[in-house]
Amino acid sequence: MKKLNLILLWHMHQPDYRDYVTNEFVLPWVYLHAIKDYTDMAYHLEMHPQTKAVVNFVPVLLDQLEDFEEQFRTGEIRCPLLRLLAMPDLNHITLQDRLYVFDSCFLSNHETMLNPYPAYKRLHELYDTFSKRGDRELTYFSGQYLGDLLVWYHLAWMGESVRRNNEFMMRLMAQSQEFSYEDRLQLFKLIGDLISGLIPRYRKLMETGQIELSTTPHYHPLAPLLIDFSSARDSQPDTGLPEHQYYPGGRSRVAFHMSSAITSHVRRFNEKPTGIWPAEGAISTALLKILAEHQCQWSASGEGVLANSLRASHPGESLPDRNHYLYRPYRIAGETESVTCFFRDDQLSDLIGFEYAKWFGRDAAENFIQSLERIYHHTPADENPVVSVILDGENAWESYPYNGFYFLEDLYGMLDNHSYIRTTTYRDYLADPGNTANIQTLPALSAGSWVYGTFSTWIGDQEKNNAWDMLCAAKHSYDLVMQSDRLTEDKKMQASRQLASCESSDWFWWFGDYNPAHSVASFDQLFRKNLMNLYHLLKLPIPPAILAPISKGNGQTDTSGAMRRSS
Question: Of these four, 105, 113, 516, 542, which has the most CB atoms within 10 Å of its CB?
């Protein structure tokens, strides 16, 4: 009987928020997503052992989770928000700390994470009233107000599975106000316990065969661009490029990120990853060659990349109906044929990422299943289609009521009992000899990402290209110093880690006036701080250009900017 193979890939990633000079966490998003999203996503899988999925952990995220675990174990907290949560007396904190609490503790989707809670909403209304009169007015807020605000922010960012199953959480939600220092301390401890349990939970799901764990080059670099800036012109021939013609030693840097990611994966999960989800689903022939050299069996990208590649492979021909080309795996002719490529269904992935949050959970789950059933009936009768649904496993749920709890519960429940839709993983799919007949050959690959099938989110406009030029100049200085005897081996290792963080794709994502100004300012500052730290480690003066902001963003946008539609 014909089957539809559904592969859900949940991509878990946060960039490196650590200042490598002070060792402080500049932003709290790693531990907030840990207690909200990584806990819930593990819970839904644990509750539905028949549902299979691929979970992709970027190593730099796992590094930071282990960093937080160590902080809780030693008591040396290097995250300002967590320090304030556990501070005994909030009446006498500095004005700077007060402002930090106010700036931090209302950052969320207010429709789903603030307005549903009357006590939290009242705290925001009080702040909104007094903040209009200037910062000095905020000194009149009591320590009790600050304590309640800190607790409510963490309650709002807590996973729904924790809120429903932890008695202490139930008591805090019911109490709603006048939280004591003991309450805050117990909440602080719960956060530490949740973080320390995350990697073991996913390892257990892997060991039972329910999930496949995949990885990404270690610090999430936009690998095709590191290898060759001109790969951006595969999909956009007229795109502008940085003044530097190439990133110095880019191919060796991508190989470094790959080797480091595999070493990280083996250390944490006791096996080599079978496949690689490249940062932003960005692939090129040059990157696939590196994946093949590291014995990777599969990789994946966006539907737009496949469409562009088919057009490049068959110039002058119109694309057939997507049901006749999308739901198959591919290999690229030449040296990369050992790597099987899968391409996400952009429409289904974007429904989960952007649309279903507006629906009732069960209606959304039923619509998703019906969409899969239509694919089943419209694909060739002699093929078992493979449908890849790939998206963030974290950012989407902030827009859903109850963190997507009802949608995921209903979706997994329906998949468990469906007669011809079966969830699987890329490793299991490729291990089945019956699926090899479905693998097609692409004569040519058009480099691109899961966003629009291009690299325009990371390169092309003046601000992004300026950032690339700053990074290229820093890498050139890095190469010169590393070839000299100026640094000790320990300092060279520190500089290497700092450079790797500078190479992350995330910084380039945020530059541009289509992103919210508050977020752009944070990531702009962090990128330039990383470059400053690199020059400091290299014992070189900081170029004046790095001292000025690269991008300002757009103060009018209502979107978070952390996710982008594929088309």
Answer: 105
